[in-house]
Structures are given as structure tokens and as C-alpha cells.
TrEMBL record:
Protein name: Ribosomal protein S5-alanine N-acetyltransferase
Family matches, as PROSITE patterns: GNAT
SUPFAM superfamilies assigned: Acyl-CoA N-acyltransferases (Nat)
Protein family: Belongs to the acetyltransferase family. RimJ subfamily.
Superkingdom of this protein's organism: Bacteria
Keyword Acyltransferase: yes
N-acetyltransferase domain sequence ranges: 14-183
Species of provenance: Isoptericola hypogeus
Any one GO cellular component localisation term in the record: ribosome
InterPro entries per the UniProt record, alphabetical: Acyl_CoA_acyltransferase, GNAT_dom, N-acetyltransferase
Gene name of this polypeptide: rimJ
Keyword terms, alphabetized: Acyltransferase, Ribonucleoprotein, Ribosomal protein, Transferase
């Protein structure tokens, strides 16, 4: 089960925090502002995805997943504006004790080390607060920036998954990475 609310300062002006119930409009704004930046790396989105109403309906679903211990939906916030996402999803307990990691940062802030700090913070939360053993991430084979983030945060490449996810309208191969959180 989730513990206390997550709020982690990443820099003097950027915080990684748990998604709030009223974040629908800010999420829609962030995705719309970053539409071109994210399109090559994400599933094809219908136009309704960029509307505040869509996210207003999705936020409670994501928070229910969090309250049931199946995910940790996080946002990166700067001056009241959402500038990225980090999600621990598909949390499995028992002998697996693992989660999937997904993330993106606003194109205006890319290349500044924010995502490295956010991934490190999410992994520390997964280990220290959730007691997870492992976090897995996947990137498109040509997403070198994302692979650098994973390398800097102690993820190791464990293989390639052919036609793993439908990204930008095409089934695409992905590199798989993991980070073991406990010795």
C-alpha cells in the first residue's frame, strides 16, 4: 500500500510530486504543449487526449490505482506548471516485487539532468517506501537520450523485445532495462 504523499524537490524550482485530483487541466496543457516533442516516443493519441476533460476523467482512475498499491503516478512541477511525468506502474508484489517505469520531460527542459534526478528519486521511493526489489524500463532502440538517463541511474540493459509497443502508430522494438534495488 502507498505510504505518505510523495513530494521530492529535484532542483530549487522543480518538484516531483504525486498526481493531484485537480491536475486534469494542467496535464492537458503539458501534453498539448509537448505534443510534437512526445509524438515520436509515445502511442498515437486521439485529439481528445489533449483536452482537459480527458485528463479530468483519467486522474481519478490513476489515483485509484495508486491507492490500491498498483501504481505511483507522479508529475514534475515547476512554478505551478506540470513539466513532466514519472510513473511506476504494474506494481507486482510477492516473489516478483517489481514495477515498470515510464517518464517524459517537457521539451523546454530536456538535457538539463532533471529526468535523471526524477528517475533516481522514483527508484529511491520504490526501494525505500514501497519495498520493491526491481524496476524495469523500456525504450525505443533509437531513443539514446532515454537510454543515457537509464545508464546514469544504474539500470542495466537486459535484452531486446521485438515489436514490444505500438509507438507513433507502429509496433516497434524496444531495449529492456532493469535496476535491482536491493543487494
Amino acid at each position: 500500500m502507498p505510504n505518505s504523499p510523495v513530494s521530492i524537490p529535484l532542483t530549487s524550482d522543480v518538484t516531483l510530486r504525486l498526481l493531484h485530483r485537480d491536475d486534469g487541466t494542467a496535464l492537458a496543457d503539458a501534453y498539448d504543449r509537448n505534443r510534437e516533442h512526445l509524438e515520436p516516443w509515445e502511442p498515437a493519441r486521439p485529439v481528445t487526449f489533449y483536452a482537459a476533460e480527458y485528463h479530468a476523467r483519467q486522474v481519478p482512475v490513476q489515483l485509484l490505482e495508486h491507492s490500491s498499491g498498483r501504481s505511483v503516478p507522479l508529475v514534475m512541477e515547476r512554478d505551478g506548471e506540470i513539466v513532466g511525468r514519472v510513473n511506476l506502474s504494474d506494481i507486482v508484489r510477492g516473489s516478483f516485487c517489481s514495477a515498470h517505469l515510464g517518464y517524459w520531460v517537457d521539451g523546454r527542459l530536456a538535457g538539463r539532468g532533471l529526468m535523471t534526478a526524477a528517475v533516481e528519486a522514483a527508484c529511491a521511493h520504490a526501494r525505500d517506501e514501497l519495498g520493491l526489489h526491481r524496476v524495469q524500463a523500456a525504450t525505443l532502440l533509437h531513443n539514446e537520450a532515454s537510454q543515457r538517463v537509464l545508464a546514469r541511474t544504474a539500470f542495466e540493459r537486459i535484452g531486446t523485445a521485438p515489436r514490444y509497443l505500438k509507438i507513433a502508430g507502429q509496433w516497434q522494438d524496444h531495449a529492456l532495462f532493469q535496476r535491482i534495488l536491493h543487494d
